């Protein structure tokens, strides 16, 4: 069966789990009421099911390629992109002043998840543009905004982000790209950038590169980095495009997945650039986007998990193998197959609810300026990124397993989800970096934001303990264990938190998943499908938190004692 | 750095962890003493490092392809194969009477692990031949043995196994291939077989297919299946090759990994075949091989884990990124990177020790006829298969993560190990099937074999509790929890064990890993590298067993209650 965008589940979560109504109750997002959101989700679902999902396999089997210095995109991508642009989807979260829809991050999150399930490789293109729009809105001069924003929002031009260099990945501050001031107030940008997603394409009139580089007087490290707009074609005063800039795509990477998305090595040879934001303020500009971008990537994981879950469920209802005494007569009836499918669905739901909860916190933090909501968003973002993407990959791998031998055959398409998902655990800050952000910066308040969230979870569990004993009890206990571990963790110097970072983040996500499942079960009332899924999650997936938190409590000494020779075998 | 076969670790495990000396103390394996084994491991290591590992990337980048009905193999594969044949490695475990080396399964396991680390895709070829040799030795007529065994053992001919059909995978009994008796005592074999590993190649004189098919009077299901030898070219009375048989390779699969290994769709059109073993006795013949083959596949996982661990460690010692205060100045110093590397090494060790322990039990069961050793081998095989292959894939995926963005680029080679490893969790009985075998057939003795093993583990932990408190205590507790869960599990009807099968198997492997790590630490004496790794394992990986066993104890009701609609989201 073809992909069906999960409108009903998104809607249920918005209405009953993450209380989206709080967002549309603010003045800023008053226009994004329940009816509007429902209509947007329906439109996004149509585009996903009818336009995006049908081109997804093309991207994998006929990767983007470089011909005579220009990227040629997979069959059908240009047409699908044109429909995205026509529908105004590029400006989903751009401000209304700039010509965008001005929608809350929560709604953008739901829409992007669906569309990325349809075709992740293509959707990375508008996602880059959306990030660039956000950066320009916050940091660019009015002149730059006037030139670029309308073109980016209409989809006529595309945007890219140029951070990484061969020696500067997780450590952006190590970059070597240079910016030389020119007499006319612009800059000559030189250097090589790698891993540039959609660094070129054959369907946009112009490609607008936001490039991090160092001015001659820029200090070493992140403090000396500035941000520049470096377009492929130079816009002229009359609004038309002029000469080609001194930049080029040197090569495309041959990757494990997202083959439809050209990952470029870019070379800038004194290319003309315009400063965006303050001199040496490049990192500040990047940080503005980073929270959104990290949530955006987390949602890519949810998207892959959803697509993989649907595909595996469909297969399990088509494939006959072995005796079954169950109702379908297909492999769905085998208990171990159902265990796999339930794990996929329960974790997909948990990751989706987490992403949407994160969106609500972001929106409320912005709309109300409330410091608690801002801290909540900051706390949830690394968890949503890492758990969302780990879930994307893990669930897709379970999907391969459900398919048995057919899962290993590329034509089946099950493996593509796993390959495509795999990059999401790495880019936009590896999941290890997310975990270090969580135990470092995000607990720098002494764990206050975490404690407030755990208060909320425990209070909710307490309030439904009588009616939902089997679910509320284990969740309350898990939240309490997480609280104790958090209280212990914040007493350690940040350096000693390293070995516990990844397990801590995952345990936190497990507890949050339990909270969202319990909320769903309670909202459902009786004992329907959401309650059965919540039972499964709390009985079988939540308990993982114990071993994880034990590892956190064990500290870093055992890990730090290990020497190179110990790991040689 | 190029791959270095893990001779020292294998040797240490044989000497200090799995007590290989018991095997060479038997009359049957008296010739495989310590010096002989050491010499064999050294030779295998040389071939691995110098001949096999260098062609591994070729297989991935230039997959085997079908040209005019013949499989063309990747560059360098034919030459590497010739060296394997020259060295006599095809006959590693074949009996000496038949011209083989007659080595114990334990030694074959160690050798195959190394060589598969070098090039899994190529090594699947001799592995298939080894399986065929074993089947023929046990079941074929003397005439067939005389024709085929010398050619297979010399490597002049290759062997394949033809079980799977489109509608008969895990459920072999559903197969449709037919065998019609001919007047000359041979049979006409017709049908389509899929997923046939190395179904053809361009370097062997003949390809010998063992094919499962049903005789006209064969009952439905597995009881009516017979085994046939169906060679590509028909051997003549004078020993030369005659006409081509009526069989062909229809197509090759396009797979996620092991691209160098041609996975064929085979078509048999009244091809001439010879019965192997009894009529309708095909499954019995398959079962003879199955234990060995399952251990063999488990070891493929260990092989991928070792290769991935070495590669990630090398990278971590080359790559500079971010500030470190550690001794190497490279990303190795980051605690979270070391945590990943330690997980890789600790689990690779555990999976290797498990495979070798399984080999020892197989060998002792055969050499002594002791029912306890036979039961031990039967118990360990599904665990070694599933945990070995899960470890292979999981460890390789951690290796991708250690490489960061570079891990996603195919040229790096890190992703290949994960892609190649992925099939091992599926073929030769999916890991779900292994788990069902464990909780069903392998606990059919009421858990006696498991209890004897747990007695041994607890007694060992008890005996070193004073000197190794921090390790022995948690291991004893874990073994005891596993014992209690096992005692509970065997009271359930087999049908109700399904939802707990996979977690039970993994928990069992976790406890065994703890046992092997403790043994290594004790053998090492003081507080060296093996003790530090054991600490890491017991502190951070062993605790996973608790959540797993809790899931087992929860039973199957929650899973069985799930309906199709619950999993639709």
TrEMBL record, chains A, B:
Pfam families named among the record's database cross-references: Acyl-CoA_dh_1 (PF00441), Acyl-CoA_dh_C (PF12806), Acyl-CoA_dh_M (PF02770), Acyl-CoA_dh_N (PF02771)
Domain (Acyl-CoA oxidase/dehydrogenase middle): residue spans on this chain: 161-269
EC number(s) reported in the record: 1.3.99.41
Domain Acyl-CoA dehydrogenase/oxidase N-terminal: 39-155
Cofactor: FAD
Keywords: FAD, Flavoprotein, Oxidoreductase
InterPro entries: Acyl-CoA_dh-like_C_dom, Acyl-CoA_Oxase/DH_mid-dom, Acyl-CoA_Oxase/DH_mid-dom_sf, AcylCo_DH-like_C, AcylCo_DH/oxidase_C, AcylCoA_DH/ox_N, AcylCoA_DH/ox_N_sf, AcylCoA_DH/oxidase_NM_dom_sf
Cited Gene3D superfamilies: Acyl-CoA dehydrogenase/oxidase, N-terminal domain, Butyryl-CoA Dehydrogenase, subunit A, domain 2, Butyryl-CoA Dehydrogenase, subunit A, domain 3
Gene Ontology MF terms: flavin adenine dinucleotide binding; oxidoreductase activity, acting on the CH-CH group of donors
Catalysed reactions, semicolon-separated: 3-(methylsulfanyl)propanoyl-CoA + oxidized [electron-transfer flavoprotein] + H(+) = 3-(methylsulfanyl)acryloyl-CoA + reduced [electron-transfer flavoprotein]
Residues passing through the membrane, by range: none
Keyword Oxidoreductase listed: yes
Keyword Oxidoreductase: yes
Chain ranges of the Acyl-CoA dehydrogenase/oxidase C-terminal domain: 281-438
Acetyl-CoA dehydrogenase-like C-terminal domain: residues covered: 453-562
Function recorded in the entry: Involved in the assimilation of dimethylsulphoniopropionate (DMSP), an important compound in the fixation of carbon in marine phytoplankton, by mediating the conversion of 3-(methylthio)propanoyl-CoA (MMPA-CoA) to 3-(methylthio)acryloyl-CoA (MTA-CoA).
Similarity section: Belongs to the acyl-CoA dehydrogenase family.
The protein's name in its UniProt record: 3-methylmercaptopropionyl-CoA dehydrogenase
Source organism of this protein record: Aquimixticola soesokkakensis
Primary gene name: mmgC_2
């Amino acid at each position: 069966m073809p992909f069906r965008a999960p409108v009903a589940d998104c809607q249920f979560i918005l209405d009953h789990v993450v209380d989206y109504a709080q967002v549309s109750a603010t003045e800023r997002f008053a226009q994004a009421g329940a009816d509007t959101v429902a209509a947007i989700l329906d439109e996004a679902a149509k585009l996903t099911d009818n336009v995006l999902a049908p081109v997804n396999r093309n991207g994998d089997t006929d990767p983007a390629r470089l011909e005579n210095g220009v990227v040629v995109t997979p069959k059908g991508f240009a047409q699908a992109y044109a429909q995205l642009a026509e529908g105004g989807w590029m400006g989903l979260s751009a401000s209304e002043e700039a010509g965008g829809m001005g929608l809350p991050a929560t709604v953008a999150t739901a829409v992007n998840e669906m569309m990325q399930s349809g075709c992740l490789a293509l959707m990375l293109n508008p996602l880059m543009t959306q990030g660039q729009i956000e950066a320009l809105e916050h940091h660019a001069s009015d002149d730059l905004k006037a030139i670029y924003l309308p073109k980016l929002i209409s989809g006529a031009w595309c945007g890219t982000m140029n951070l990484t260099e061969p020696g500067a990945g997780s450590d952006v501050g190590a970059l070597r790209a240079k910016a030389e001031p020119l007499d006319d107030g612009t800059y000559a940008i030189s250097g090589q950038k790698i891993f540039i997603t959609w660094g070129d394409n054959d369907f946009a009139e112009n490609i607008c590169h936001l490039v991090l580089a160092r001015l001659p007087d820029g200090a070493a490290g992140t403090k000396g980095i500035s941000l520049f707009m470096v377009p492929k074609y130079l816009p002229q005063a009359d609004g038309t495009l002029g000469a080609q800039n001194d930049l080029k795509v040197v090569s495309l990477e041959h990757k494990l997945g997202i083959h439809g998305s050209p990952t470029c090595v870019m070379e800038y040879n004194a290319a003309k650039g315009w400063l965006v934001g303050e001199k040496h303020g490049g990192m500040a500009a990047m940080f503005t986007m980073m929270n959104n971008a990290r949530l955006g990537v987390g949602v890519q994981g949810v998207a892959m998990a959803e697509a993989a879950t649907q595909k595996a469920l469909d297969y399990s209802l088509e494939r006959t193998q072995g005796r079954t005494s169950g109702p379908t007569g297909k492999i769905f009836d085998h208990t171990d197959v159902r265990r796999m499918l339930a794990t996929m669905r329960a974790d997909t739901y948990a990751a989706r609810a987490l992403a949407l909860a994160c969106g609500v916190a972001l929106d409320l933090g912005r709309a109300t300026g409330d410091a608690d909501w801002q801290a909540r968003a900051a706390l949830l973002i690394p968890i949503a990124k890492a758990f969302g993407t780990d879930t994307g990959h893990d669930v897709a791998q379970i999907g391969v397993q459900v398919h048995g031998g057919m899962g290993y055959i590329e034509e089946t398409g099950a493996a593509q989800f796993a390959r495509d998902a795999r990059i999401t655990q790495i880019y936009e800050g590896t999941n290890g970096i997310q975990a270090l952000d969580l135990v470092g910066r995000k607990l720098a308040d002494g764990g206050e934001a975490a404690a407030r969230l755990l208060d909320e979870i425990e209070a909710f569990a307490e309030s439904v303990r009588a009616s939902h004993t089997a679910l509320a009890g284990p969740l309350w206990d898990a939240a309490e264990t997480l609280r104790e571990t958090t209280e212990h963790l914040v007493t350690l110097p940040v350096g000693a938190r390293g070995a516990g970072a990844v397990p801590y983040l995952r345990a936190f996500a497990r507890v949050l998943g339990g909270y969202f499942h319990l909320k769903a079960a309670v909202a459902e009332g009786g004992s329907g499908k959401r309650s059965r899924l919540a039972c499964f999650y709390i009985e079988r997936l939540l308990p993982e938190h114990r071993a994880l938190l034990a590892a956190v409590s064990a500290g870093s000494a055992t890990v730090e004692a290990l020497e190179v020779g110990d790991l040689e075998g």
